[in-house]
Amino acid sequence: MDASRYFDNAATTPVDRRVADELDRVQRQVIGNAHSIHEAGREARALVEGGRARVANLLGAEDPSQIIFTSGATEANNWVISQFDRIAISPFEHSSVREPALHRGASVLGNDGYNLETPIGEPSLLAVMGVNNETGAIIEPPFKPGPMLHRDLTQSVGKVPFDLTGVAFASCSAHKLGGPKGVGALYVRDAGSIEPLLRGGGQEAGLRAGTLNVPGIVGMGLAAQLSHEEREQRHRHALTLRALVLEALAHTSDWTSASAMAEDCSPFILSLGFAGVQGETLVIELDARGFAVSSGAACSSASPEASPVLLALGFEESLARGTVRISFGPQNTFDAAHDLGRALAQALEGLRSQGGRR
Ligand code: PMP
C-alpha cells in the first residue's frame, strides 16, 4: 500500500529506507556469529555493540550494558512481570503487561481520568507505561517510593520526552520506530535485579541466551539513532498531521476524543470515538478508500471485548466500540492527512444517514 496513507503507525511502522538498506547490507555481507572469536565473529560483535550503544543513547541509559536485546516489547514485558509476585499495574497497560500481570494476581491501580492513585499495600513491582498505545496519553506513575518501577516505553521512545530516573526496567520495540519487526530491548538498571530469561550459551550477559539477531539489532540501532536525531522534526510533523485530520472533522458532530482528555498527549496517536458507529465499520470504510487506521490496539483486534483502557476512562461500552485510532509517522504527507480527515467525515455521514447507528 501507499505508505503515505498508512495511518496505523502505533501498530507498526514501515521500515525506514535507510534502515532497510543497512539491513540488506548486513544480511548480505556480515557472516559471523557475534560470539565467535574469529574476524567474522568480531565484525558481527562490533555491529551488535554499536546497535546497543545507539539504543542506550535513545533511552538515556547510563551504560550500554544495561540494554538487553529481546524479540520485542512483549518478551521484555513478560520477562519483567515473571520475576515478581506482588505486582501493581496501571489500568492503561498494553496486553503484554496486563495479561501476564493479571495471570500472576496483580492489582490494578485506581484512576481518575489518566491520573493514577497510589498502590494499596506494598507491591514489589509497579508497571506504568509511558505513552498509552490506544490514546497517546502520557501516563505518569503515582509517587510512592518502594516498589521497583517498570515502564513500557514502546510508544514513547523517539517520540516524546521521558526520563529513567527511578526506573528499574523499561521496554521498547524496533518496529514502532522505523526498524525491523521481531527485535526489541529491555533496559535493566541493575543486572542483579533480574533472573535470566533464557539459559544456554550465555549471551546478553547471561540473561538471554541464543545467537544474536545481528541484522535486527543493527537495524534497531540505526532506527534508534535516526529517531533520536530527527525527533523534533518528526514531532512537529505529527502535530501538523493531527491538526489536519481534526480540521477536516470540524463540521462532524457527536464525537469525543480519549486523547484530548489527557493533560499531555503524544501527537503521534489520535483516538476518536463516534457515537452509534462501530469502530470496525469505520476501519473497513476507510480501508475501502485506501487508508489504514485501526479500531484500537492491533493486538486486541481479535478480542471481542471493548477496550479496557477506554472503559477505565469511563467510556460507555458503545462509545468504546465506536473508537478509531489514527496514528502518524514521518512518511504520512499533509495531503494524505487532509484526505483521511475528509474520508472519515464522509464515511460517518454515509453511515449515519443510512441509520448506521448500531
Ligand atoms: N507495549 C506497547 C505500548 C505497544 O504498543 C506494543 C505493540 N502494540 C507492545 C508493547 C508490544 O510490542 P511487540 O508486539 O513488538 O512485542
Topology (elements, then pairings):
Elements: H1 17-29, H2 39-59, E1 67-70, H3 73-81, E2 87-89, H4 95-103, E3 107-108, E4 111-112, E5 115-116, E6 125-127, E7 148-152, E8 169-173, E9 184-188, H5 214-229, H6 231-248, E10 255-256, E11 269-274, H7 279-288, H8 308-312, H9 317-321, E12 323-327, H10 334-353
Parallel strand pairs: 2-3, 2-6, 6-7, 7-8
Antiparallel strand pairs: 1-9, 4-5, 8-9, 10-11, 11-12
The structure holds 4'-deoxy-4'-aminopyridoxal-5'-phosphate (PMP).
Strand order of the biggest β-sheet: 1-9-8-7-6-2-3
The structural domain count equals 2
Bound ligands, each once = 4'-deoxy-4'-aminopyridoxal-5'-phosphate
CATH fold topology of the largest domain: Aspartate Aminotransferase, domain 2
CATH class of the largest domain: Alpha Beta
Instruction: Please state the CA-atom Rg, rounded to the nearest Å.
Output: 21 Å
Instruction: State the order of secondary-structure elements, H for helix, E for strand.
Output: HHEHEHEEEEEEEHHEEHHHEH
Any idea what the shape is?
globular
How many DSSP helices?
10
CATH superfamily of the largest domain: Type I PLP-dependent aspartate aminotransferase-like (Major domain)
Helix content range: 25-40%
List keywords for this structure.
alpha/beta, 2 domains, 10 helices, 358 residues, Aspartate Aminotransferase, domain 1, Aspartate Aminotransferase, domain 2, three-stranded antiparallel sheet, 12 strands, binds 4'-deoxy-4'-aminopyridoxal-5'-phosphate, seven-stranded mixed sheet
Structure description:
The protein has 358 residues and is α/β, with parallel strands linked by helices. It folds into two domains: 3-12 and 231-353, Alpha-Beta Complex (Aspartate Aminotransferase, domain 1); 17-229, 3-Layer(aba) Sandwich (Aspartate Aminotransferase, domain 2), CATH 3.40.640.10. It has ten helices and twelve strands. It has helices spanning 17-29, 39-59, 73-81, 95-103, 214-229, 231-248, 279-288, 308-312, 317-321, 334-353, and strands at residues 67-70, 87-89, 107-108, 111-112, 115-116, 125-127, 148-152, 169-173, 184-188, 255-256, 269-274, 323-327. A seven-stranded mixed β-sheet has the order 1-9-8-7-6-2-3, sandwiched between helices. Helix 4 links the parallel strand 2 and strand 3 (107-108). The model has no long low-confidence stretch (mean pLDDT 94). The site of 4'-deoxy-4'-aminopyridoxal-5'-phosphate (PMP) has 15 residues, from helix 3.
